Amino acid sequence: MGKTLYQKVWDAHTVGTLPDGRTQLFIATMYLHEVTSPQAFAMLRELGLPVLHPERLFATVDHIIPTDNQCEPFADPRAAAMLNELRRNCQENGIRLFDLSSGRQGIVHMVGPELGITQPGMTIVCGDSHTATHGAVGSIAMGIGTTQVRDVLATQTLAMSPLKVRNIRVEGELRPGVTAKDVALHIIGKLGANGGLGYAYEFGGSAIESMDMDGRLTLCNLAIEGAARCGYINPDETTFEYLKGRPYAPKGAEWDAAVARWKSFASDADAVYDDVVIIPAEEIEPTVTWGISPDMNIGIGGTVPAPEQARDEEGRKAYTTALEYMQLTPGQPLKGLPVDVVFIGSCTNGHITDFRAVAPYLKGRKVKPGIKALAVPGSQMTALQCEQEGIAAIFREAGFEWRLPGCSMCLAMNPDKLVGDQICASTSNRNFKGRQGSPTGRTLLMSPIMAAAAAVTGTVADAREVFDIQ
Amino acid sequence: MPLTKIISISGKAVPVAGADMDTDRIIPARFLKCITFDELAGTMFYDERFNTDGSSKNHPIDAPQHAGATIILGGENFGCGSSREHAPQAIKRSGVQAIVAETFAEIFFGNSSGIGLPCVRASREDIARAMEITTAAPDTQWTVDLESMTLSCATASFPINMPAEPREALMLGKWDAVVELMNAPEAVAALAASLPAPSSK
Predict the structure, then answer these.
(1) pLDDT of residue B1
(2) Residue of A255, A30, A63 whose CA lies nearest to A149
(3) Which residues in chain A are contacts of B103 at CB distance < 8 A?
(4) What is the mean pLDDT of chain A?
(5) What is the pLDDT of residues A163-192, one digit of tens each?
(6) Exposed, middle or buried: residue A335 (CB in 10 Å: 0-12, 13-18, 19+)?
(7) Cα distance between residue B47 and residue B34, in whole Å
């Protein structure tokens, strides 16, 4: 009987079984950022323990940094204190920090793959739920809590129970104008925000196999929004091509050995899954959320549902709450809904490919007057590439504010926030109440080209019509 | 390291109704700008409880009759969203000692178990019934008992469940895993040597 990648990676990293029955799992790489690590270092100091494997830890700063001006001192003293605490902890423990001056700083889930630190067959953790992103290269990557960050600092291991594995196969060819973001939102809509509880999601099928690495990163990034703690894609030629030549990727003779090893982790053809879901690629439309949970989404051609259309009583209550918060009416199309703010960026859609996809359509067009449009590359490396390729210039010329790398308007821990009940067409990952910084702010999740279409029209729009994508 | 054995939690309960109670609602991001968790006491569900001008939304948590509640009654997919341990830390540091909900998000559940905050599941009907009882009579004394796996009060008793491993860890006072994780340094060293670490050289 064949094994899944999940089982193979799990087995390769198992230290043993703990007295309570859980597995002691070795962690190949842990990423650290300023929000969820300071308390872990404090706990470690209280216990008087050293960091066991500093060479397997990589840190950067992303959540709290301003994106308009990163000169220090920051206007917000608490943000400054968090960055300085991260610096102190990394310095004292010999941990590599990709700081603002490094040229490699960025959102942690962008930086890891971009530098080639994230590799197939690894166990990867970070005190951040979107760690699932790193599964795109064929690793088992999970978000963990701060006490668990402390456990890894002290022992490079975690106490874990294995997940079940659901194989989600997207078969066929995606229609023009349909992106990885739409695939992810569609899957979450279909299986529910709670549907992946207890599962790892293995994404496969011909539509996934032909997806580039940035698209795969977007897809795995959103696994957690469907409650799957990790999402992954089997490593293939696209993966190896992406990693080759990156700063932390193996080099020379080591490269060939590494590729052979990485290939061995891919799920066997006769692997047995706990569940299989098949989704025809053709049924996926450009998708937009209408509510306060990522599964509350519809194709751009659809209309806002009524509470009666929810699965059950609990769902009807949730729909009612969402409609009230979003100030939307059942039966109303989203198309044509005026927006106030457009945000292109985040660990979901702040990749070079996202900006490359949008730039040609923005050329010669302007952001609708009165709309605040932010473009925030996810990392310094991506920002530099965007400058070199003339992409940043196109965004600026179109009327976007071209910002410095960081989490920005995804989560309201820095100055980029919605005001009042503004509506934001956002490429980020969560449309929770208050997520973008205003307790009454409204978020519509969508793909970068859909957000760009909203920017130029000032309303939710079908990018295929606005940009004549066929 | 001696830890409290968590076997049974008693006290008043407070309903926090609704599915998908996400971690942004449990602890809004602006409270995350802290270097220790000590600052989080009293911040749980802040924007659910207060308007932007600081006035009360009359959430059950702030109702005088529910003051001092040690048990939260919640809905489906409780704690979904971010991995921020700030969420269970804020709940625990606000005086809550157990959460009973229909289902829990994976990371939230693990974070809570790891800091000695038991999260137990009950059926939708039983939680609705418990909410009714506690709303009608807020002084009702409830007990979450991990031994008998029940949520009970003088007039009712409901079955609860929880996976075996975290239950065992809580009841044996071994919910902080770090002690056990330090018991096999040779095996860890052997694995570390066999698994390549990323290097820029």
Answers:
(1) 56
(2) A30
(3) 194, 197
(4) 97
(5) 999 999 999 999 999 999 999 999 999 999
(6) middle
(7) 18
Taking residues B83-100, report their average pLDDT: 96
DSSP state of A106: B
Q: How far apart are CA A279 and CA A284, in angstroms?
A: 9
- Give residue-wise pLDDT tens across range B135-146: 999 999 999 999
Interface of A with B in 336-395 (CB under 8 A): none
Query: Using an 8 Å Cβ cutoff, are A14 and B157 in contact?
Result: no
Q: How far is B161 from chain A (nearest CA, A)?
A: 15
Residue in chain A closest to B195 (alpha carbons) equals A28
Q: Rounded distance, CA A6 to CA A121, Å?
A: 9
User: pLDDT tens digit string along A269-296?
Assistant: 999 999 999 999 999 999 999 999 999 9
DSSP E strands, A351-464? 372-375, 401-402, 423-426, 442-445
Name residues whose C-beta falls within 8 Å of residue A276's C-beta, 6 or more positions apart in sequence. Answer: A166, A167, A168, A169
**What is the distance between the alpha carbons of residues A292 and A443, in angstroms, rounded to a whole number?**
8
**Residue pair A445/A289 in contact by the 8 Å Cβ criterion:** yes
Contact (CB, 8 A) for A137 and A425 = no
pLDDT tens for A316-352 read: 999 999 999 999 999 999 999 999 999 999 999 999 9
**What is the Rg, in whole angstroms, of the alpha carbon atoms belonging to chain B?**
19
Tell me how many degrees the CA angle B178-B181-B185 measures, rounded to the nearest 5: 130
The backbone torsions φ and ψ at residue B169, rounded to the nearest 5 degrees and listed phi first, read -60, -40
Q: H helices then E strands: how many in chain B?
A: 8, 8
Asked if residue B2 has pLDDT above 70, the reply is: no
Query: Given strand A164-171, what is the order of strands in its sheet?
Result: A230-232, A199-204, A164-171, A275-280
DSSP of A292-341: SSTT-EEETTSBPPPGGGSSSHHHHHHHHHHHHHHT--TT-BSTT-B-SE
Judged by a CB distance cut-off of 8 A, whether residue A46 touches chain B is no
